[in-house]
Amino acid sequence: MVIVGSIGFDDIETPEASGSDLLGGAATHAGLSSVFHMPLQPRRPPRVGLVSAVGTDFSSEAQSILEEAGLNLAGVVRRDGQTFRWSGRYEGSMEEVHTISTDVNVLKDFSPEIPVIWNDPDVLFCANTHPRTQVSVLDQCPGAAVTALDSFMLWIETEFETLSEALRKVDVAILNEEEVCSIAGDGILSRAVDMVRSGVALYGGEAAGPGPRSLIVKRGSSGSVAYLPCGTITLPAYPTDDLVDPTGCGDSFAGALLANIAGRKGALNQLDTMRNALLHATVTASFTIEGLGASGLYALERGKYHARADKYRRMVGL
């Protein structure tokens, strides 16, 4: 599995906690989540690789957290300058975040190069990054068995043509409800999903080609809905009242989901496989929200995880 996206440091303030210089970034959260589900095997190389750029200020401690988790950092380059930084504040129910600042730093004009030996992964995930970068990465990995991407409102509003191109190149898009409805210009989710998947809502319309054949819609505290070639699956969020920090929940959701279909031929056409993947994505995200920054992921204990996963299975009847 190859993940392309940001590795950085976050300054976060929520009603429950706050912290500075926290290890974060979309690739970090997705990577830590996916490697938890694809752990190291004896005498075999890491199965999850990150592609990103960090600055000269990226600490050995932060690097160790990623490496000790089992991530392959061969695709991460160190550039002169400062590492990507984001600062945000959550209030109330923490459903929305107020971004205080975003400093792209060494990620500005960064053009990822996928290591040659990674050109045909089981899964290629373009985490939230510029659509132009996503298109470039997808073109570098024509042999990927499953391709997926995430995005957010800024790219929908400013880079719609390029984002549409990227969406037409992937098998799976993992977006939140607001983003899907915004792309389609329709507030009815099921209708908006059909418009995105058919290509009608994308730049150039249906004549330019269909969109992703699978669309996973994140709905925050309302859970998720997966629109797949094999049917539709909906699951509730895991009910936790230990809400500390929602940062990275969507990325960890995506990482767990994709890790649980990696190497499974035809997974997108298998309801049981996708339901299991969504279950693990939901449970993993529930641990993410219980820790500040990415700490809920890199400190996650397997026994505690499997106990919650079993509890959730019973709750939803799986």
From TrEMBL:
Keywords tagged on the record: Kinase, Transferase
Class of the enzyme per the UniProt entry, highest EC level: transferase
Keyword Transferase listed: yes
Key word Transferase present: yes
GO terms of molecular function: adenosine kinase activity
Sequence ranges assigned to domain Carbohydrate kinase PfkB in this UniProt record: 47-294
Signal peptide: none
Gene3D superfamilies: 3.40.1190.20
Enzyme Commission no: 2.7.1.20
A Pfam family recorded for this sequence: PfkB
InterPro entries according to UniProt: PfkB_dom, Ribokinase-like
Name of the protein described by the UniProt record: Carbohydrate kinase (ADK)
Organism: uncultured marine group II/III euryarchaeote SAT1000_29_E11
